[in-house]
Amino acid sequence: MNDDVKKLKSEFDAFLSPSPTFTSKDKHNIRKRIAGKMKPRSTHVLPSFLTGIVLCFIVVFGYFVLAGHQQPQLVALPTQKESALQLRSDLTKTPLGETHYTSIELSASLQSIYEKFANTQNEELLRGLRPFEIFQLFFYAERIEDYETQYALYITDSSHDKVFETVEDYIKTKKTEEGTLLQRIEQELNEGGYLIESIGQNANIIISKKEGLGFGLVKSERDIWKVRWLPIQ
Q1: Is 208 among the domain residues?
Q2: Dihedral (C-alpha) 190, 194, 199, 200: value to the nearest 10 degrees?
Q3: Are 230 and 163 in contact, with CB atoms under 8 Å apart?
Q4: Is residue 194 included in any domain, yes or no?
Q5: Is residue 110's pLDDT more than 50?
Q6: Residues 166-192: what's their mean pLDDT?
Q7: Does residue 73 fall inside a structural domain?
Q8: First vs last C-alpha separation in the chain
Q9: Is the pLDDT of residue 103 over 80?
């Protein structure tokens, strides 16, 4: 039965195509192609990952090497004089050689010096004070009418002629004055003005540039700033 079926199939195939169209060689080529497509593809994930790590390491290492060779930036520190000027709350920025003041009120330390000087008139208490601080003491004495202490703030060197030989003559004259320089100074400050301390060989406190009004001081032979006689200039 089976032989008859195979014979019939062969006769039918021969009838359809006298020569075979699908040979054994064709089968071999197809199997070869299928086998080639089924081979697993090699992947390179691990080598790529390692390459990325190496590159990152090189970048980071290079950054730290460059940062380590950078020169430190130098910061200029203020001088002692500049620091001292910044601590004074009554100062404003001024041209070189001048200092501006907006108040003549005594600080606590200057108030203490005044009280000691008023009791002893010891010039050593004034050593190291600036011309403007002597100016402040002078007009504080004016405000409280302590003319004896005010008189002691004038220069006493023999090279300077006294306008008033005695403190009594000075006090007598002060009590008869009408309109004082202190009132003019207070008016200037109340109107938003300021006083200028200008120091050279001598010192001058400029009360009004517009009016050319100033107050002169001079250093004594003992290197202490004192008020010059006839100080208003």
Answers
A1: yes
A2: -110
A3: yes
A4: yes
A5: yes
A6: 86
A7: no
A8: 152
A9: yes
Whether the Cβ atoms of residue 171 and residue 147 lie closer than 8 Å to each other: yes
Which of 101-110, 153-162, 179-188, 216-225 shows the lowest per-residue confidence on average (mean pLDDT)? 179-188
In the numeric block, which tokens belong to residue 99? 């200092």
Q: Which of 20-29, 49-58, 70-79, 122-131 has the highest mean pLDDT?
A: 122-131
- For 128-152, the pLDDT digits (tens) are 999 999 999 999 999 999 999 999 9
119: Cα separation from own chain's centroid = 44
Q: Residue count of the chain, please give it.
A: 233
DSSP for residue 38: T
Residue 9 lies in a domain: no
Phi, psi of 196 (to 5 degrees): -115, 125
What does the alpha-carbon distance between residue 114 and residue 81 come to, in Å, rounded to a whole number? 25
Give the residues across from 130 on adjacent strands: none
Number of domain units in the chain: 1
Which domain covers residue 132, as residue numbers?
80-232
Structure token digits, residue 221? 């032979």
Which residue in 225, 229, 216 sits closest to 159, CA to CA?
229
CB 130 within 8 A of CB 225: yes
Average pLDDT over residues 198-202: 85
Task: Return d(Cα 163, Cα 26) in angstroms, integer.
Answer: 140
What CA–CA distance (Å, rounded) separates 10 from 115? Answer: 144
Sign of CA dihedral 83, 88, 94, 99: negative
